[in-house]
Specification:
The longest helix has 25 residues. The protein contains three helices and four strands. The protein has one domain. By secondary structure, it is α+β, with helices and mostly antiparallel strands.
Length: 89
């Protein structure tokens, strides 16, 4: 019988894949010599809120900002996380 993953667990595994891919990408950055391959693998693409959302309630103030920095290796980590989700049910 196949086990179904909850949405939270699936997002967690995909996020973990992205984090591990980002860490591996940074390690590649330290190991690989300057080349086109290194530039391709480690070029960061950033998207998210550039200006933080500010909420001031006079007593307390909140600031919220969310940025995603992805490179090819972290995308491969997400693909690997999807592979794990799909074939380990």
């Amino acid at each position: 019988m196949k086990q179904k993953f909850s949405v939270g667990k699936a997002l967690g595994i995909l996020l973990l894949g992205a984090i591990i891919g980002g860490i591996i990408g940074e390690l590649f950055g330290m190991i690989l010599p300057e080349s086109v391959v290194k530039e391709f693998l480690l070029t960061k693409y950033t998207f998210g809120f550039t200006n933080p959302l500010m909420i001031d309630l006079n007593i307390i103030a909140f600031s919220f900002s969310l940025m995603f920095r992805m490179n090819v290796v972290s995308f491969l980590g997400i693909v690997f996380g999807y592979y794990i989700l799909k074939y380990t049910r």
